[in-house]
C-alpha cells in the first residue's frame, strides 16, 4: 500500500508525540526523564506550516501548544499508548519523538511514602513497547522513531528500525558535546529502511524539524 505522504490531493495528517512520561511512585513523586518536548513541538509546528494537519500527543511539558494543532495531553506511558491507539488509525505518518518511560512502578503507593531510615525498594515492571505494537499495524503509514543511545549508535538504530518496522530512525547519542535533552542545538543521524544515512551537525531543533519532514514528505512505501 502506498501512503498519502507527498500527495497534494488530500491533506496530510501528521501524528507527533512529544515530551516525557511520568510514572507515579506515590501521590507526590514519579519516575521520568529529562525530555523537554521541544523536538516534538517543533515538528508539529513545521507540519502545520506546510499545510498538514497535526495532532500532538504530549507528555508533561512547560511548552505552549502549537497554534492550529490538536493536542492530547497524557501523563504516563499507558495513557500515551491509549491515545495512540485512538489517533494512529487516522494518521498518514507517526513521528514518535516522545521519550516514553520503559519502566513503571508495579503498585504506586496510595499515600506519600515517609522516610523511615534504611532502604526503600521499588518494584518496576516494563511498560508496553508502543512503537513495536504500532509497527505491526502500519497499513501504509510512514513510521518515524527516535533512537537515543549511549554507545553503538548506528548498530542500535538499525536494530530499532528492523525490530519495530520503522521507515525512518532519528538517532543521536548521549554524552556528545551537545545535550540530547534541553539543548537548543543538537546533532542527529537520519537512517531510512532503504539504506540512506544522513548526518546533520549542530542544528537547532526547528531546523531539524524541517529536515525530518522533508525526509518524510519524499518517502514512499
Give a description of the structure.
The protein is 24% helix and 29% strand. The termini are close together. The strands form three sheets. Strands 5-4-1-6-9-10-11-12 form an eight-stranded mixed beta sheet, sandwiched between helices. Strands 2-3 form a two-stranded antiparallel ribbon. A two-stranded antiparallel sheet has the order 7-8. The chain has helices spanning 38-49, 77-87, 130-135, 153-163, 205-217; strands at 13-18, 23-26, 29-31, 53-58, 70-73, 93-96, 103-105, 124-126, 142-149, 168-173, 185-192, 197-204. The protein is of the alpha/beta class and 221 residues long. The protein has one domain (13-108, 121-217): CoaB-like (Rossmann fold, 3-Layer(aba) Sandwich), CATH 3.40.50. Helix 1 (38-49) packs across helix 5 (205-217). It is globular, with a radius of gyration of 18 Å. The protein contains five helices and twelve strands.
DSSP helix count? 5
Provide the β-strand percentage band: 25-35%
Tell me the total number of β-strands. Answer: 12
State the major sheet.
Answer: 8 strands, mixed
Category by helix and strand content = alpha/beta
Strand order of the largest sheet: 5-4-1-6-9-10-11-12
> Topology as H/E string?
EEEHEEHEEEHEHEEEH
**Approximately how much helix is present in the residues?**
10-25%
Query: Can you tell me the CATH topology?
Result: Rossmann fold
For CATH, the homologous superfamily is named as CoaB-like
Question: N- to C-terminal separation?
Answer: 7 Å
Note poorly predicted spans: none
Amino acid at each position: 500500500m502506498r501512503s498519502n505522504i507527498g500527495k497534494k490531493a488530500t491533506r496530510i495528517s501528521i501524528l507527533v508525540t512529544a515530551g516525557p512520561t511520568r510514572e507515579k511512585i506515590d501521590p507526590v513523586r514519579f519516575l521520568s526523564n529529562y525530555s523537554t518536548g521541544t523536538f516534538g513541538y517543533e515538528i508539529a509546528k513545521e507540519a502545520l506550516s506546510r499545510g498538514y494537519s497535526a495532532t500532538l500527543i504530549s507528555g508533561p511539558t512547560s511548552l505552549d501548544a502549537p497554534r492550529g494543532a490538536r493536542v492530547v495531553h497524557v501523563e504516563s506511558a499507558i495513557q500515551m499508548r491509549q491515545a495512540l491507539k485512538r489517533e494512529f488509525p487516522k494518521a498518514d505518518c507517526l513521528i514518535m519523538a516522545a521519550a516514553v518511560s520503559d519502566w513503571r512502578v508495579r503498585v504506586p503507593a496510595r499515600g506519600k511514602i515517609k522516610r523511615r531510615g534504611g532502604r526503600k525498594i521499588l518494584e518496576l515492571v516494563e511498560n508496553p513497547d508502543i512503537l513495536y505494537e504500532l509497527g505491526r499495524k502500519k497499513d501504509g503509514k510512514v513510521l518515524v522513531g527516535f533512537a537515543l543511545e549511549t554507545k553503538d549508535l548506528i548498530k542500535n538504530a538499525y536494530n530499532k528500525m528492523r525490530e519495530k518496522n520503522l521507515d525512518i530512525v532519528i538517532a543521536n547519542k548521549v554524552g556528545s558535546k551537545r545535550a540530547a535533552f534541553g539543548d537548543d542545538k543538537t546533532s542527529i543521524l537520519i537512517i531510512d529502511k532503504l539504506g540512506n544515512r544522513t548526518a546533520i551537525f549542530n542544528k537547532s531543533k526547528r531546523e531539524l524539524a524541517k529536515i525530518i519532514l522533508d525526509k518524510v514528505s519524499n518517502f514512499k512505501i
